Amino acid sequence: MFNLSYKSQRKWVLLAFLLIPLLLLCSFSFYPAIKLIYYSFTSWDGYSKEKPWVGWSNYKEVFNNPEIFGVFKHNFAYFLIGILQNVIALFFAVILNNKLRGRNFFRLLLFLPFIMNGVAVAFMFGYFYDTERGSLNLLLNFLGANELSETSWLGGKTLVNYSLAAIGLWKYMGFNMVIYLGALQSIPSEVYEASTIDGANGFQTFWFITLPNLFKIIELNLFLTISGALEVFDLPFILTKGGPAGASETFLTKTVATAFQFNNNGLASAMCVILIIIVMVILGTQRLVFNRRGE
Question: Which residues form the signal peptide (predicted)?
Fold first, then answer.
């Protein structure tokens, strides 16, 4: 190898360093993805050696069965609360980006829920939402809202998804705030000083300086919000098991139940492929819209 030229040696060294990451990527990403697509065209039960080929039947079943594809309507609550979550996160980021006393403490306080264990958070809010002894209803009763204090937050079909999505707002808002905060700190202070000299008020500064500089970060957080809303699993799985009467089932909980409860891994694989395609389409559409908006 020492007889090789510097350019050739450089190529071999780069290849050697990339070899292990590429092997890991192929082993744990590309190969499982190919097998997932293959299984989606079979009626495999998950444990037998036989994998009968069924063609596009699984995909037709997903789109034609309202009990499968129709659960996407339950994800709308998570998307709506996710948008609100970004607005609140941006609000706190703008405030805590200023020179306030104790701002580091408040940053830590708002970010703390994100590092908490998801299962622990789910059980904590299970007690919080409890109809008879939950702290939320006790607080509402103390404030005099007697009708609201008897609400079944996780037992009603109308409120259950919004109640679960509110947990996500509490847990992930601090994460979004930190992302916005990092972007805000990258904006030169001279720009704000110039706007102040020109007589711009707070709203004008935010609308014409802060917001345009956060455009790419907003795009990123919006994508994370949409993909997260489509891929919700842990909260409904732990707290409601999809109830009441399937009102809180999401596409992922339905996929897991199809694979491990009904032993239909072929149909579950097709559901996973469809979810991946939907996320890719949404990402492509979002990039197209934001690129046009940026131009």
Answer: none
Q: Where are the alpha helices (DSSP H) in 231-264?
A: 234-239, 251-256
pLDDT in tens, 244-284: 888 999 999 999 999 998 889 999 999 999 999 998 898 88
* CATH 3.30.1230.20 for domain 65-294: no
Residue 4 makes CB contacts below 8 A (sequence gap 6+) with 12
Average pLDDT over residues 218-235: 88
DSSP, res 34: H
SS3 of 88-108? HHHHHHHHHCCCCCCHHHHHH
Q: Tell me which residue of 240, 54, 109, 92 sits closest to 162, measured CA to CA.
A: 240
Do 105 and 98 touch, CB atoms closer than 8 A? no
Output 33-42 pairs: Cβ under 8 A, ≥24 positions apart. Answer: 36/269, 36/272, 36/273, 37/269, 37/273, 39/265, 39/266, 39/269, 40/266, 40/269, 40/270, 40/272, 40/273, 41/266, 41/270, 42/266, 42/269
- 288 by Cβ neighbours in 10 Å (0-12 / 13-18 / 19+) ranks as exposed
* Rounded Cα–Cα distance for residues 42 and 178 (Å): 44
Q: List the domain boundaries for the chain.
A: 6-63, 65-294
Q: Dump pLDDT digits (tens) for 134-189.
A: 899 999 888 888 888 888 899 888 899 999 999 999 999 999 999 999 999 888 88
The amino acid sitting at 156 is G
Q: How many CB atoms lie within 10 A of CB 175?
A: 18
